[in-house]
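Dear Dr. K.,

Following up on our conversation at the group meeting, I've run the structure prediction for Acyltransferase family protein from Paraconexibacter antarcticus. I'm pasting the input sequence below exactly as I used it, so you can double-check it against your construct before we proceed with anything downstream. Let me know if the numbering doesn't match what you have in your notebook.
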Amino acid sequence: MSLLNQVAGAAARTAGGLVPRFRPGNLDDRDPDTMRELLPGTWLLASAWYRPDVRGLHHIPQEGAALIVGNHSGGSQSPEVFVSQLAIASYFGVERPFYQLAHRMVLNSPVGGLLRRFGTIEADPRNAERALREGALLLVFPGGDYEVFRPSWQSATVDFGDRKGFIRLALEHDVPIVPQVTIGGQEQALFLSRGEGLAKLLRLDRTLRLKSLPIILAPPFGLVVGPFTPFIPLPTKVVIQYMEPIDLRATYGEDPDVDAVYADITGRMQDVLTALQHERRFPVIG
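The predicted structure tokens came back this morning:
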């Protein structure tokens, strides 16, 4: 075994030991009382920093479970997670159960405790299934770290990396899909590379479920390497558009072809994202 492989193996084992195990009951961490208390202040901060423009909230079903499927942007400080939390809680009220799937390391970051109280849960099939069984709204980002760390010049591209599990999840629980299309997050830093080769070399795909080790240019440190290295996000303008809900069986038949559904939904989302991109005059400014 080469020295490089030995070093990579040691780094992978060390990193793997730092990641806490899955907690199956973390849906219960959502705290409407805390949300009600903090919602005005956090919404004010988000409004000042991201100047959010949230459209189409009326497309989200008024009651019952639904799977909200979003494109992902902005690295580990993904603004659409915060903005959608606050917008949906303000629109429907904090009592309506709304959860967002996130990577395990996000939930064990310094802000992880607060995110849990606002409904962020670990991106695990057991959590997703439980949330939908209980009639909640559930937000998923199929592109995960692959999409969220894409280069900034691909900010107007929907790229789920061919991940289709969200379609099977919606079919299994017979819930509508509500596409959520976001633009702006990829402008809060200059994302240079996903660093997929480096992540594979360090075996992060096995130990941390990360396929990317991104290279980012952002204040205050300049060049930043790694998915969870902190940086100060630029105060970009974030626009979110919720599209009309899609009943998969009513739209595609009783036994839908998953590949065809995937192509159609991502194509629809891409059309909306392209239109939002055409509205923007300048990066960051919006």
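Two things stood out to me. The chain has one domain: 26-279. The longest helix spans residues 258-279.

Best regards,
J.T.
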